[in-house]
């Protein structure tokens, strides 16, 4: 079993990731939370937590960790401090801790933030974080979903290095894709976009690696 740190564990998608990891025969989740009050929801299910604030020093959070999923976000409030610089701090910590893989939850449009209108600052932050990870020499997977919905997941997606049209995808299927991307035989040093689709998640990921 590999220990997987989930940055952003308290978020809507983060909680789904932690649940999937907790059900996995391959991974053990370590939920990174920012507030003491967020620990109980995980600890009642015997899930280990670690305190970490992306605006502070987080080097301690990667102790005894094998891989990381970065699913943290500021909800548009502190895009530079959290979505960009917080992600960079996690990349630095992962490098220092010699982690085996870094899976980044990014966003469609992060390639061209200048064209994004209202989301420009957010996508610029995601873009900068993605570039920093690519340049880190860590083994990585950068997953860029379309607009997130709370619909029930289907276990099927559409995936490509670049998808021509934007669209939606359920948080369930995004979480599944991120967890699948952790595996050693899944994507290596790849960036890909995902939307709802007709291909089983494992097969869709294999097609982009």
Describe this structure in words.
The protein is of the alpha/beta class and 209 residues long. The protein has one domain: Rossmann fold (3-Layer(aba) Sandwich). The protein is 32% helix and 25% strand. It is built from 6 helices and 11 strands. The strands form 2 sheets. A 9-stranded mixed sheet has the order 3-2-1-4-5-6-10-8-11, with helices on both faces. Strand 5, helix 4 and strand 6 form a beta-alpha-beta unit. Helix 1 packs across helix 5 and helix 3 packs parallel to helix 4. The longest helix has 18 residues. The chain is globular, with a radius of gyration of 16 Å. The mean pLDDT is 93.
Topology:
Layout: E1 2-7, H1 12-23, E2 27-33, H2 40-43, E3 48-51, E4 67-70, H3 79-96, E5 101-105, H4 120-134, E6 140-145, E7 147-149, E8 156-160, E9 168-170, H5 171-180, E10 190-196, E11 199-200, H6 201-208
Parallel strand pairs: 1-2, 1-4, 2-3, 4-5, 5-6, 6-10, 7-9
Antiparallel strand pairs: 8-10, 8-11
